Amino acid sequence: MGAAKRYGGSLTFYFPSCFYRFMQIKISFFIALLCLSVTNISAQVPVIKLPELQKLLNSKSDTTYVVNFWATWCKPCVAELPHFEKLNAESKDKKIKVILVSLDFKRDLNSRLKPFVEKNNLKSTVVLLDEPDYNSWIDKIDASWSGAIPATLVIKNNRKKFYEREFHSYDDLEKTLNNLNL
């Protein structure tokens, strides 16, 4: 690798220039991997505005969308997340897509929401809705919605059913979905 020479009482190592180039490449590769992993974490929770959500809400697809409105600070919301995760996991071969719409503040994206998603290993699609004036958009989701969370909207073929309640078990959620005439 390198040659050692003794000058006086100290030992000095000399490395060929190719070694330094190799180390530069190795460090650059490590930095690139680090950047990619940070980019990947950022991609986990996109920040969206209402028009992007409305495109989904107006879907005429034969896929059933289960859109849950929640926040990390909402205890009943957090309690029902495992039921939506189980639905997502068991629906991989079906035309059911679970979307978890976080109503956390945008400023808490990196300090609260992303760590929560990672810690709880959420596999469903998670988005942060960046619309702080709730009164300007909750009626666009459903006219009957008071704005309380948790709330869930089920959409299929442009037909919708809204639930302003907590699902207390997976069976509760599954039974509700099975009883829909969408």
What does this 3D model show about the protein?
By secondary structure, the chain is an alpha/beta fold. It has 2 domains: 3-44, no CATH class; 47-178, Glutaredoxin (3-Layer(aba) Sandwich). Helices cover 42% and strands 23% of the residues. The chain is built from 6 helices and 8 strands; from the N terminus they run E-E-H-E-H-E-H-E-H-E-H-E-E-H. The strands form 2 sheets. A 6-stranded mixed β-sheet has the order 3-6-5-4-7-8. Strand 1 (3-7) and strand 2 form a beta hairpin. Helix 3 (75-90) packs across helix 6. The longest helix has 28 residues, at 17-44. The chain is globular. The chain starts with a strand and ends with a helix. The model is unreliable at 25-43 (pLDDT under 50).
Q: Could you outline the blueprint of secondary structure elements for this entry?
A:
Elements: E1 3-7, E2 10-14, H1 17-44, E3 47-48, H2 50-57, E4 64-70, H3 75-90, E5 96-102, H4 109-119, E6 125-129, H5 138-141, E7 151-156, E8 159-163, H6 170-178
Parallel strand pairs: 3-6, 4-5, 5-6
Antiparallel strand pairs: 1-2, 4-7, 7-8
Query: What's the gyration radius in Å?
Result: 25 Å
Please state the overall shape, judged from the principal axes of the Cα atoms.
globular
Structural class: alpha/beta
The CATH level-2 architecture of the largest domain is identified as 3-Layer(aba) Sandwich
Could you give a short description of this structure?
The protein is of the alpha/beta class and 182 residues long. Helix content is 42%, strand content 23%.
